[in-house]
Design goal:
15 helices, 2 domains, 6% strand, mainly alpha, single chain, five-stranded mixed β-sheet, Rhomboid-like fold
Length: 386
Amino acid sequence: MPEQLDSIDRKNLLAMKLLHYFITEKNYNPVLLQGAEDEIWLENMNSDYKIVRIVSNHIINDEQYNFDMFKTKHIVKKIKKKTFSLSMNVLSIFTDIDDSVKIKEDTKNIDCISLYDEKDLSKYKFIYDTFPDISNKLDFSEEGFQLFMKITGDINKKNKEDALKVDEIFKKKVPYVTIALIIINVLLFILTDFLGYKNAFIVDYSVWGEGIVKYGQFYRLITGTFIHDGLEHILFNMYALYVFGSQMEGFIGKTKFLIVYLFSALTGSLFSIIFNTVPSVGASGAIFGLMGSLLYFGYHYRVYLGSVIKSQILPIIVIELVLGLVAGGRIDNFAHIGGLIGGVLMTMALGVKYKSTKSEKINGWIVSILLILFLLFIAYNYIDFS
């Protein structure tokens, strides 16, 4: 009986040390699973191992081990669908497995190791390629109850910090910039439509390729996105702007939101003048940019928004693009596509708080600038406006 208690204490202590390392040092978060007993699942979608499993269940034979592999693959498939991941490397750490069981270190993106204690890490050189500091971080000066208190205290502190970050991102905020954009659009609509200036305003300020390229009226790339042709047009666009704008302004902040909106309007207008032969107006290109921004943001926070993106955002984007195709020339679908791409790229350039790396943001700026230059080059060299 005392030997059994020692074994349980050993497993619990090792599991707590591993939890402390992966949560406090490597920014992993617990994954809540139903029916997963004697095992802990952790996720970090920015790590080489997106999933780390700590398995304390006693594995006594190959059949039980193979069943564990089967169950793991089944759960991983579900996580991949939820998180939009094409591939997912998994590290399974077994803390109580008989020596007779043959461990397969690599089974279709699932690496497995067996640890009696942290010293056994030396058997698995590939672990140090991803976690070079793991041995040092599992070495504690504290022992017994003091070690238990330190580990639980550090984990609780990290969890609270993460919870505060999530609350900061997702708490409801007043969308001042979104409201201001709606007011500007509505006021312009009232002045141009209700007071009889609509046709003249469209002629002077719409997204018109010939005016932009031949006459240098670059302001049209933006001014045309604030003009609407009819009550139904502005009501639909302003409703969409409020729905997506209020969300994205809260998620990424007012300044980043405005930059994404204007950049999406710009890329949408450039797509429009390249692929359309008639002037266009409306905020829908910029609004599609907000949808693209939400896709990029949601990918980074897919643990919280994965199901929403899959069940709501993606279907809306697809439906709107299909409607644009079947509507003929009445809807500027190319502006939608350009805005969508612009929204993704500019959000990548500006970064998602607590998630984006410096290299991701640099790549985002490079690609965004190259896109604008490429579209301008095509408009000035290959489009005939005569």
